[in-house]
Design goal:
The complex is a heterodimer. Chain A is an alpha+beta fold. Chain A contains nine helices and 13 strands. Classes of the chains: A alpha+beta, B alpha+beta.
Chain lengths: 315, 331
């Protein structure tokens, strides 16, 4: 942690404790995002600070014991520092983006919070116009899905699985909605697969809320999605392709495990896929812009599929 | 930062907050612990001045509004103070659902700079007496992917500083160096863009950050341009991504039970089994709208012999072209 972070925290700790007399030191530390030892060290430092004169009665004072802490003299730092432009921006832009998601504004909490923050941030909030976030929340499908989550009901969905190029019907127990990298997903327990699945909302072709309650197994879902939504299974086959530079878009659209630039301008990529059928469709469409380096099985099936297809155009 | 310096800076803030008069550097040196020095010794005095300059810069960096001025017209030397009304976060009260919304908003960012700005903002709100549940959810868990260039671009946009980067266009993949006066950044449907004035093209331009090769560097001095008052960043990006207008309709035969993805996007799918006596399995006939014949052809070629294009020729020929390229790979 840098010194500036610590200075900022020290200036916030005093007003934080001032409005929470008798708070447990451990609770305060957890709330402030530091260890209890770190917070106690901060408090020892603050004991040495105060108003000019620096005698008893001038210094910051508090009642600190094994368990709790109460500020008894704040030496004038009774309020936190104003939000900086970057801080105001981070919250204001995020609130604006969330308020755009249908159904999120229910009750107006986002808008009310936004208005209060903008007013408290004052001029600093003007910086927020430098960033805009627009997500693709999935339209009216989101309303049905969120309704089922709110009422705790199961859903029957018609779902298109791009990897297998198939549409299936299944009953799922909704857990939560995820908005990741601009796309919206329903995380649910899939009764067909007997596992947690994430369904892209734009691939749910139909959804009906059922009368029966949602009953996902305890502890299902809720995993971290910060590493991206697509997590290949360990056993998924790896596909290696040599792409012409014209096909670079592949590296932007599909999660590649590795991307290697070649001296001749070509790109060698490796992808994991649960279904070689998906890879075959990709490579067939890439035409001259891609060559399968491995597995051989894929190279052969792509070539034979192309030859078979060409027969239909021979007359 | 040393413990001694941190302590000195906290005392400096308290001292400047407690005074109505502007205090000169000399007065501060005689008051705040840590600045003691021999004023008659030029070396010692110079060391103090450097230390005091660094401390003021540090406080301003943190957002502490250190004011410079004189209390009366007879003062010859400027002094310093912090006005409580400029320093303190105004009163803010959030209802529990509003605090939950703020907590959720703070978790949106994965970009290092924005994420840390959000968490220090939360710290101040907590210090203002608001309880923010770090796990609050409104039934939706949003995450905006991180992109290292965003922090660099935002810092440059704020400082009104130009940036330089190598960029691969959508048609020509060879990176070309671009010079931009950034106005702001946009996250549009999960992708990050920068919008600004391209000084080489002398026009407004928008760049997708995933196509930047290497890193974005801030170049030159600060305050070299003024961005428009209220640029519509989103409209600029949407215009770039809206693509071409619709161009035509293709008719394709689709093997029954196959090509589910194609059927989903088709404007119509009708039974066409009567058309082909040789195929008892049966075919459907689908109509598909398209903007770009080549990208439709690539999709159709992907289905191999499950999809056969009837027309128009621009799509049919492109499909044949791609299939031939794959079929004729020499081994």
């Amino acid at each position: 942690m840098s010194g500036t972070d610590r200075l900022g925290r020290l200036l916030a700790v005093v007003p934080y404790l001032l409005v929470r007399p008798g708070i447990r030191v451990a609770d305060a530390a957890a709330d402030l995002g530091v260890t209890e030892a770190q917070l106690r060290d901060d408090l020892q430092l603050l004991f040495l600070c105060g108003l000019p004169g620096y005698g008893p009665g001038d210094l910051i004072d508090m009642v600190l014991d094994e368990e709790t802490v109460t500020i008894t003299f704040d030496a004038g730092i009774s309020r936190p520092l104003r939000l900086t432009a970057d801080e105001a921006l981070a919250l204001v832009v995020a609130l604006r983006a969330l308020a755009e998601v249908p159904g999120m504004g229910a009750g107006g909490a986002l808008e009310r919070a936004l208005a209060k923050l903008e007013s408290a941030a004052g001029d600093a909030a003007a910086e927020a116009r430098r960033v805009t976030v627009q997500m693709d929340p999935g339209g009216e499908r989101l309303t049905v899905v969120r309704g089922a989550i709110d009422r705790g009901r199961a859903l029957r969905i018609t779902y298109y699985t791009a990897a297998r190029d198939a549409t299936t019907e299944r009953v799922v127990d909704p857990i939560r909605v995820l908005l990741v990298e601009g796309r919206t997903y329903l995380e649910a327990w899939c009764r067909r697969a007997e596992a947690v699945r994430r369904f892209r909302l734009d691939r749910i072709d139909a959804a009906t809320e059922l009368a029966e309650p949602a009953a996902p197994p305890a502890g299902a879902g809720g995993g971290d999605v910060t590493g991206g939504i697509f997590q290949p299974e360990p056993g998924d086959p790896t596909v290696t392709l040599r792409l012409d530079r014209r096909a670079r878009w592949v590296t932007e659209y599909y999660p590649c495990e590795t991307v290697e630039e070649q001296p001749d301008g070509n790109i060698v990529v490796t992808l994991r896929t649960g279904d070689l059928g998906w890879a075959r469709r990709l490579v067939l469409g890439l035409g001259a812009d891609a060559e399968v380096l491995s597995p051989t099985e894929l190279a052969l099936s792509v070539r034979s599929a192309a030859r078979t297809a060409l027969k239909y155009y021979s007359n | 930062m040393s413990r001694r310096r941190t302590e000195r800076l906290v005392n400096l803030v308290i001292c400047l907050l407690s005074t109505r008069r502007f205090l000169t550097a000399a007065q501060i040196a005689r008051t705040v612990p840590g600045y003691e020095h021999d004023e008659s010794d030029p070396k010692s005095h110079e060391a103090f001045q450097r230390m005091f300059e660094r401390d003021k810069a540090e406080l301003r960096e943190l957002g502490v509004p250190v004011e410079t001025g004189t209390t009366s017209v007879f003062d010859t030397e400027p002094g310093y103070r912090i006005a409580e009304r400029d320093y303190a976060l105004p009163d803010i009260h959030l209802a529990p659902d509003e605090a939950a919304a703020v907590g959720l908003a703070a978790r949106l960012w994965q970009s290092a700079g924005l994420a840390s700005a959000a968490s220090s903002a939360l710290l101040k709100l907590r210090a203002a007496g608001i309880d923010v549940d770090p796990h609050a959810t409104l039934g939706v868990e949003p995450v905006v992917a991180g992109e290292p260039a965003v922090d660099v671009l935002l810092a440059a946009a704020r400082a009104r500083r130009a940036v330089r980067f190598d960029y691969r266009g959508s048609h020509d993949d060879r990176p070309v160096t671009r010079n931009l006066q950034p106005w702001g950044v946009v996250s549009w449907h999960g992708r990050w863009y920068v919008v600004g004035h391209d000084t080489d093209r002398n026009a407004q331009r928008c760049f997708r950050l995933s196509r930047v090769a290497g890193t974005v560097k801030a170049v030159g001095r600060e305050d070299v341009y003024s961005p428009p008052e209220n640029p519509d960043l989103l409209a600029t990006v949407a215009a770039l991504e809206s693509g071409r207008p619709e161009r035509g309709e293709a008719t394709v035969r689709v093997r029954r039970g196959a090509a589910a993805g194609l059927r989903r996007g088709a404007t119509s799918v009708v039974d066409g089994s009567g058309d082909d006596p040789d195929s008892p399995a049966g075919w459907d006939v689908a109509t598909v709208r398209y903007r770009d014949p080549d990208s439709l052809a690539r999709r159709l070629a992907g289905y191999g012999s499950d999809v056969v294009v009837t027309g128009p020729p621009e799509v049919r020929d492109a499909v044949i072209h791609h299939l031939r390229a794959v079929a004729e790979v020499a081994r």
